[in-house]
Design a protein that fits this description.
2 domains; DNA primase, PRIM domain; Alpha-Beta Plaits; six-stranded antiparallel β-sheet; alpha+beta; six-stranded mixed β-sheet; about 35% helix
């Protein structure tokens, strides 16, 4: 197994099989993967810092078998930090890797951990999510265009409630909508909140939106996956490569880009590969920077959940008209 000794800051790493092709259709090698993550590290690392991470490893490339590795490998270097998280498994705990520096990032990429999946909380308090995430996953023949429409309507609702949201391409076939919190909140609260939103959008537009994962319900609709808001689940990080046909990235988007894609139906224009994302960040900086630190107090959250669940369950409280007024006052064309 040929290896390359690589000096990175104060650490020396032994990198192996740098010429191994991990994306056959693109000729993208493990060396290219590592180069991408080194090039993007300045904007990526703040989003990974202190977040327990699950490795998703593709030792034989994106067309081969993969496996998840929650427990940080026992052969890790002594300088790789970990976080013990209580688990419902037989051991009662999982020691996750923490990717807090460029050396650790390079080390996990040498393990062919192409995708980066983190908890929605940080190591200091794994019971407190720092954000709410909605995965907008279209079921064929619906596609990214349909996800853009739903994302804009969700953005407009949150905007009317004084809440700022951020969008990113999933790197696959949909979009992710992120609401930063960084305040004292529980997963029970955020999960209820996310479910209420998904239910209400389904109630308002049942022909095009669904809140359940069942495949038989998803044809031609956008599935608003609210279930990611759970202390035991991970979500793919912004700037993570995806194990797809080509080295596509879960890339942050401006809302103008989402609106343009919806208006022009040119959804390929918001689907970016690794080199394009590096160039974008050099020009635009980190579009997701506010997600790291912005503190969002949500006094309307409890009211929205109460009204939302009432509307979704069909209670005759006038909540449906309230929600329609706030969420769907100006639908995207």
């Amino acid at each position: 197994m040929p290896s390359t000794t690589f000096r990175l800051g104060s650490r020396t790493l032994n990198l192996s099989n740098m010429d191994k092709v991990l994306y056959p259709d693109a000729g993208f090698t493990k060396g290219d993967v590592i180069h991408y993550y080194l090039s993007i590290a300045e904007v990526l690392l703040p989003h990974l810092k202190d977040r327990p991470i699950t490795l998703k490893r593709y030792p034989n490339g994106v067309d081969g078998m993969f496996f998840y590795e929650k427990r940080c490998p026992s052969h890790r270097p002594s300088w790789v930090k970990t976080k013990m998280v209580p688990s419902r498994g037989k051991d009662g705990r999982i020691d996750y890797c923490l990717v807090n520096d460029v050396q650790t990032l390079t080390w996990i990429e040498n393990l062919a951990s192409i995708e980066l999946h983190t908890l929605l909380s940080k190591a200091k308090n794994v019971q407190q999510p720092t954000m709410v995430v909605f995965d907008l996953d279209p079921g064929p023949p619906a596609g990214v265009w349909d996800a853009c429409r739903v994302a804009i309507e969700m953005r407009d609702l949150f905007s009317r409630l004084g809440l700022q949201t951020f969008a990113k391409h999933s790197g696959g076939k949909g979009l992710h909508l992120v609401l930063p919190l960084n305040t004292k909140v529980t997963f029970d609260e955020t999960k209820d909140f996310a479910k209420a939103i998904a239910l209400l959008f389904e109630k308002n537009d049942p022909a095009r939106v669904v809140h359940l994962m069942r495949k038989d319900l998803r044809n031609g609709k956008v599935f608003i996956d609210w279930s990611q808001n759970d202390e035991h689940k991970t979500t793919v990080s912004v700037y993570s490569l995806r194990a797809r046909q080509r080295p596509w990235v879960s890339a942050p988007l401006t809302w103008k880009e989402v609106e343009t894609a919806l208006r022009t139906e040119k959804v390929d224009a918001i689907h970016f590969e690794a080199d394009e994302v590096v160039a974008r960040t050099q020009k635009m900086g980190d579009l997701f920077e506010p997600v790291v630190d912005d503190e969002t107090e949500t006094p309307a959250r409890a009211e929205l959940i109460s009204r939302g669940i009432g509307a979704a369950e069909g209670r005759e409280t006038g909540d449906r008209s309230w929600f329609r007024e706030h969420a769907f006052a100006s639908r995207a064309a």
